[in-house]
Design a protein that fits this description.
single chain, mainly alpha, Rossmann fold, three-stranded parallel β-sheet, 4 helices, 3 strands, globular
Length: 127
């Protein structure tokens, strides 16, 4: 959206100082008819460098690959090698995303397994 590398570094550092546990990485997907429709897309190299920097500065955070995966080779699989540790599956607010089946296949193809983000453990008998 026009941020500089300094802006990105400042954001990564601010998130580290706040001990943020989950950081979504979004790359703008310009949509016709919006104010940002003419914005040039980021290169895959720039997206991957951003992910790597956020991982370096926030080593224990979940770096979540979100909007813009279609700008990356193999629908974002390379982002997992660059430092992303999670992905947001399904459609985004204004753009289409990947299905759970597609993401599970991507993980399988990479030799990785899925870690469930939420597990319903139920309630104790008293409640």
């Amino acid at each position: 959206m026009g941020e500089t590398w300094e802006d990105r570094m400042d954001m990564a550092i601010s998130l580290a100082e706040l001990s943020i546990e989950s950081i979504p990485i979004n790359a703008l997907m310009a949509i016709p008819g919006t104010e940002m429709e003419g914005q040039a897309p980021l290169s895959s190299e720039e997206i991957l460098r951003t992910i790597a920097i956020f991982r370096f500065i926030n080593p224990t955070a979940n770096i979540r690959l979100a909007a813009g995966r279609k700008l990356l080779p193999h629908n974002g699989a390379v982002a997992l090698r660059a430092g992303a540790s999670a992905s947001i599956t399904g459609n985004m607010l204004t753009t289409s995303g990947t299905t759970i089946k597609e993401d599970m296949q991507m993980l399988h193809d990479m030799g990785l397994t899925n870690k469930t983000a939420y597990t319903n453990v139920g309630t104790c008998g008293a409640h």
